Each structure stands twice: as structure tokens, then as C-alpha cells.
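Sequence only, no structure available. Ideas?
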Amino acid sequence: MKLTPELIDFMEEHGQTEPSRLLLNASRFPDVDIPFVVEQITARRQIRDKLPGWYANKALVFPSKLAAEQCSSEQTAGYKQQLVNAEDHVCDLTGGLGIDSYYFSLKAKKVTYIERFANYAEAACSNFETLQADNITVLNGNGEELATGIKDVDVFFIDPARRGDGNKRVFALSDCEPDLTSLYPILLERAPKIIAKISPMADILHTLTLLPETTEVHVISVRNECKELLFVVERKQEEPLPVHIVCVNFPTKGESERFTFSMEEERSTTPIFTETAGRYLYEPNASLLKAGAFKIITANYPVKKLHINSHLYTSDVLVPDFPGRTFSVEEVIPFSSALCKKIVKEVPQANITIRNFPLTVEALRKKTKIKDGGEIYLFVTALADDSKVLIKTKKYNPLVEI
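Reply:
I predicted one. C-alpha cells follow.
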């Protein structure tokens, strides 16, 4: 499965054409496999932002648009490199498009890619050759069955399929394919480590009970949207250590935000509260919120929490390295029905966030008539004394603050 120079030129020429139009006019191009070309064009549109390096390589081929939709991004695949060593043999049991296998190969000594669908394996083989990834072995077959015959594996990587009957999304580990809850003990007999990519919708605490040998959980967000949960499972140690939760967010610009803690630290921390918002308001990034790092934040940063259930923080002095968004507070307004009727005159347009409050954003917009967007950010929440407030803010701008 390779793209000829002629097909590449054709795709370049018709890359902006609507796929449906190409299919309707297929008879005009008798020497071109139009359905295949349409699949390639559609897949490339899927990966343009999350795989810019692969998108730029016109010789790479995609087995389906679904493969392009479900694959890891370059950022998250690159992050997984940190979880393996240079001398490791990594076995990817659910190869898919091959993004993770390829990025593992850039660091690990050897990678074995396994994929049950023949057309995916064929595309991966072609792409690895194009990318000169000559330390990857491609196998077509069932990963569960083939895993027992592969020797000297240091790390198994697995990303169970999260679609059930009728292509319906599933989130429970036991509903995914393969069932990691029954497979992982077998894999740990063959290798000392497993890296499992779990649905970002999964409950971390519940998953830890299903995978008790977990040593690390990596919660990865891209542009403040939680994308991946990675569970690192290792053979039992003589003295079990606390599970480390590593929260990582890749912002649009700048360096990644990273925060590490343990569930025991979170449980044992007594948070510091305040009864009002200070000069700055902080909203943790999606990784911290997903991981449940709510109390521990006040032990690691000079901030105070607004309410036990609000998960918003404040300070009078700027905390420049806070792992999330920072806002300059303009006004703290007690919330009331009367406020809903008149605030639109002062704030006709705003971005609204609801935290620990009995109304949805949609319901509040209906009550206040405030339109979406603009430079104003309204946080509607509860303070430590349970009073309801509306906090009017703008995104922190260091140029304005100077």
C-alpha cells in the first residue's frame, strides 16, 4: 500500500475539493482509485493539526479516516517516550495507525507493532519504511495471541479499542477490546512493565482498583482538554510505593505545565480557604481537575481555595507558575435575582464558567441575556461561607499589569 507520485500529485491538485464531489465525478478519472483518494484526503484533514509532521509528508498512507481520528497526537505520542528506556524492546499490542510505535522507535532500541486489521498493518509497514524507522517489526494478527510468543519484551503498550456493538463508545475497561483487566496479569508474566492508554472519561480511582499494580498515572491534556490517561503497571515490588499522579498540559504556546502528587498527599492535605477573591483568580488546567488535585494545590502554591467544591483559587500576589489559567479580578458581586436582570447592561457579552452553583451556563445566559464571547470572563461560584457570587475577570495580561 504505497502512494505513487501520480496519486500524490492528484491529491495535491484536488486536496481542497469536497470528497462528495470527487466521488460523484469519479467517471472523469478512470485511471484513479477515487474512493481510495477520498479516504486519503479525508484522513489528512483529520491529522493536519495533531500530526503536522506526518501531514507534511505526502508519501504517507492512511488505512482509514477512523484511524486518523483515533490516533495519538504528536505531542502525546512524544510524551510517551519518557516512559521507556533507550535499551527497551517495546511491544505495541494495538498498533493502529502506528503513531505511538513510531515515536517509541525514536527512543527505544526495538519496537514490535501488532495490528489485527491487515490493511492497517500494511499501511504501517509502508509508512515505517518511508520514515526509515528500521527498528520496528510489523506483525498482523491478534495482539493477545501473538504477545505470548514474542521474546525479551521490556514494555507492553496497549490502547484497547473503546467502541462496542454498533460502533458505540464504551468506557469500562471490561467492555474494551481487548479486556485489559483479564489480560494484564498475563502480560506482566512476559514483561516487567505495561503502559495502558485508557479513555480520558475513565474514573482514575476506580481504574486503580482494577489495575492494583499501577505505579504511575499520567493525565495528559492538550490545550486544556484532557486527551489521554496512561496507567503504568509494573510487577509487584517488595515494598509497594504510593501511586504517583503526573498531570501534564500542553498549552497553545510556551512550555508544558506539569504537576505531580499522590492520592495520599491529596487525602491528607488540609486546604487553605478564603472568604473572598483576591487580586488574581486561578483555574487549574484540565489535567489537574481530572486527576482530582484539589486540596494539594494550596500546599504547593501560595493560593487559597474559594470553596471545598468550587476548585477555583485566588491570591493577592501573582503566582506566575500556576498550572492553569490566570485571571485579573475586576469585581466580586454578590449573586441575586436582581443582579440577573440588570447585569447585561454592564456586561452585554462574556465567557461564563459555572463552578459549584445550582444553574447551568445555558440557564444563566437565558436569565441574564449575556451573549457569549468577548474579553470578560465571569465565574459564578460559591465562597467558603457558601455565599454565591459572580466574579468579573479578564485574562491576566502582564503588559497591562506593568
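The two ends are 58 Å apart (CA to CA).
Hope that gets you unstuck.
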